[in-house]
């Protein structure tokens, strides 16, 4: 009768395979030893808070506002716009910005902007 081929476990291990097994075992031992380093640490939430004063911004843009008002004086006839209503509307809008708070959140980060 012919002999059946030996199973994988019974076959002799070559020198190359033995070396690979030793390297694999060494890597497993090192991974166990360094395991605590690979554990992800929880990240703290990051929040950015910005306080933006409206008055200094208006002072910086005042030349542009005066230029826009000069242009608004000449717009009533072609566009039917009353310059007084434009000035009052812009003033009301800027006054309503006082105390505005904008919150933007994404995953573990948040940005808070407060206008005063």
Report on this model:
The longest helix has 19 residues. A hairpin with a 2-residue loop joins β2 and β3. Helix content is 52%, strand content 17%. The N and C termini lie far apart (98 Å). The model has no long low-confidence stretch (mean pLDDT 77). The protein is an alpha+beta fold and 116 residues long. It has a 3-stranded mixed beta sheet, with no helix packed on it. It is rod-shaped, with a radius of gyration of 37 Å.
Number of strands: 3
The helix tally amounts to: 6
Order of helices and strands: HHEHHHHEE
Q: Give the strand content.
A: 15-25%
Major sheet: 3 strands, mixed
Coarse morphology: rod-shaped
Instruction: Give the neighbour order of strands across the main sheet.
Output: 1-3-2
Low-confidence stretches: none
Structural class: alpha+beta
Mean pLDDT: 77
Write the layout of secondary structure elements.
Elements: H1 15-33, H2 35-38, E1 46-52, H3 54-60, H4 62-73, H5 76-79, H6 83-96, E2 101-106, E3 109-115
Parallel strand pairs: 1-3
Antiparallel strand pairs: 2-3
Features:
116 residues, alpha+beta, three-stranded mixed beta sheet, 6 helices
Characterize this entry briefly:
The protein is an alpha+beta fold and 116 residues long.
């Amino acid at each position: 009768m012919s002999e059946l081929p030996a199973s994988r476990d019974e076959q002799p291990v070559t020198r190359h395979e033995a070396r690979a097994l030793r390297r694999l075992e060494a890597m497993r031992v090192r991974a166990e030893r360094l395991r605590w380093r690979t554990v992800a640490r929880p990240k703290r939430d990051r929040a950015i808070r910005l306080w933006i004063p409206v008055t200094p911004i208006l002072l910086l843009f005042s030349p542009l506002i005066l230029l826009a008002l000069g242009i608004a004086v000449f717009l009533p006839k072609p566009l039917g716009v009353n310059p007084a209503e434009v000035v009052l509307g812009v003033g009301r809008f800027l006054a309503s910005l006082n105390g505005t708070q904008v919150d933007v959140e994404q995953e573990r980060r948040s940005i808070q902007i407060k206008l005063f």
